[in-house]
Design a protein that fits this description.
alpha+beta; Arc Repressor Mutant, subunit A; SH3 type barrels; 4-stranded antiparallel β-sheet; 12 strands; elongated
């Protein structure tokens, strides 16, 4: 129920910004014009025009002192601009500026989480129409993600219906089927996410687009419970908290990138080139797979449980490599038995092929 109002508010703000940018050149060309006449020319009420003029009084150049802000003089119901702060004519873009703005708007239009894509697309169409051949260069804008899947998810979210998704959860290394009620799509750290009320978890969850293996729209409308609240993502998707497990790793020089890529609670210099790094993780299962995927310059210091899990997994992997592959049964002299012939796609054959 709030989305149409939000779009209307965004559109009203955009319309007011365009009106303010045109208002100063308009008044400069008509010093001493009556407010009623100006309001009629601009298609607004006199009250709205007065509010726009009051806003212009606090607009201007960096520094924002008395000599930097737009200034005007009133004589009864007449107004005259006395300082324009450089807005003395409509904006004119150079070819490079127009192209840069078009590319930025195209990227913005493709970014999940833009609340008013229609406004972006209208602005883009106006600039492209005004610039003409200046922006006709073959520039293609693509986000660093699976654009087909992102477009599919965005269409599904905008439909306002509940979705059935098949989702891979990296923290538990499992794939589950869920029914979700979408709230929004957004882009964080170069990755696209669907934020939705998950009926399975009975909570708001973030689902990475590249981990959604399948999505289907349901006939029922999405119904988000009143207690559902969007996440605060100003500091990123993962927000460490004291209740999460704390792990400590000893890392070499080649693995110091961890301290820049992951939020660490403590980084201390160890012996030689080694560092001691402590960070919070969602659970020890994820931490075990995380450590196993790193290089040989990483060792688990704490907790002991995690060190034992990593050691056990490493030993099991070495044992698997040490076990000889069973030899294939001998082929009869007259060729294979037709009754036991199998196709190359037979699981019994492919499973034993390395």
């Amino acid at each position: 129920m709030t989305r149409p109002a939000a779009r209307g508010g965004s559109r009203a703000s955009a319309d007011r910004l365009a009106r303010l940018l045109n208002l100063v050149p308009y008044l400069l060309a008509r010093p001493g014009i009556e407010l009623a006449e100006a309001a009629g020319d601009l298609g607004v009420t006199e009250r709205q025009l007065r509010e726009d003029l009051e806003l212009l009084w606090v607009c201007g150049l960096p520094g924002y002192g008395p000599g930097d802000l737009i200034d005007m003089a009133f004589d009864g119901d007449r107004v005259t601009i006395t300082y324009d702060a450089g807005i003395d004519r409509p904006l004119r873009l150079t070819p490079d500026e127009a192209l840069a703005l078009v590319v930025a708007l195209r990227m913005l239009a493709e970014t999940p989480g833009v609340t008013n894509r229609e406004a972006v697309e209208r602005a883009l169409a106006k600039i492209e129409n005004a610039a003409g051949d200046l922006v006709a260069a073959p520039v293609e804008v693509r986000l660093p993600a699976d654009t087909r899947r992102v477009a599919e998810l965005r269409t599904a979210v905008e439909s306002g219906r509940a979705l059935r998704i098949t989702y891979y959860t990296a923290a538990r290394d499992e794939t589950t089927d869920r029914v979700v009620d979408p709230l929004r799509m957004l882009m964080v750290g170069g990755r696209a996410y669907v934020e939705a009320w998950c009926r399975r978890a009975e909570a708001v969850r973030l689902f990475r687009a590249d981990r959604i293996d399948a999505v289907a729209e349901l006939e029922e409308r999405a119904v988000v419970p009143p207690q559902a609240r969007p996440h605060d993502l100003t500091e990123g998707v993962f927000r460490p908290s004291p209740d999460l497990p704390l792990i400590t790793l000893r890392i070499g020089r080649g693995e110091r990138w961890l301290t820049e890529y992951y939020p660490c609670e403590r980084v201390e210099a160890g012996g030689g080139d080694q560092w001691l790094v402590s960070l919070r993780v969602t659970d020890l299962g994820w931490a075990r797979r995380f450590v196993l995927g790193l290089g040989p310059d990483v060792a688990v210091v704490a907790p002991v449980e995690l060190a034992e899990q990593v050691r056990a997994a490493a030993v099991a992997a070495l044992d698997a490599y040490a076990s000889p592959v069973p030899a294939a049964p001998p082929v009869p002299v007259g060729g294979p038995d037709p009754a036991r012939a199998v196709s190359p796609a037979d699981p019994a054959v492919t499973a034993g092929t390395q």
